[in-house]
Design brief:
The protein is of the alpha/beta class. It has 5 helices and 5 strands, in the order βαβαβαβαβα. The chain is 39% helix and 19% strand.
């Protein structure tokens, strides 16, 4: 049995408009000892990132309104968030989406549907 991580040192913000995806990721990551904050859109995600200072941010690329690319750009411009790892999440496996996500400041790209057996390892690599 593994020792649970200290939640306050492993705070993850997940920005996604789909409540089913958010709920699944929250359950999986909290079972691994992470504290997961949820934001339903880009503006709320930016606000929470500034206020909560998470250790890692997952952002859906295809958000309504302020999309994930713009969220990543803005996070990289703010002093409080510029060094936080950002992982883009998308249903598209399109190489252009991956390239653009890296160009705007994301550290990695995860394709949906998210592999629940792999996501914790992907996140641990950045924390």
């Amino acid at each position: 049995m593994s020792i649970p991580r200290l939640l306050e040192n492993n705070k993850i913000l997940y920005i996604d408009h789909d409540p089913d995806n958010s709920s699944l990721i929250k359950r999986v990551l909290e079972a691994d000892g992470y504290l997961v904050l949820l934001a339903p859109n880009g503006r709320e995600g930016l606000s929470q990132a500034f206020r909560e200072r998470p250790n890692l941010i997952l952002v859906d690329i295809h958000l309504q309104g302020l999309d994930g690319y713009e969220v990543a750009r803005r996070l990289r411009q703010m002093d409080h968030t510029r060094h936080i790892p950002i992982l883009a999440v998308s249903t598209s496996g399109n190489p252009e989406d991956k390239d653009l996500s890296v160009e705007v400041g994301c550290d990695d790209y995860i394709v949906k549907p998210i592999d629940v057996d792999l996501i914790s390892k992907q996140i641990a690599a950045y924390l």
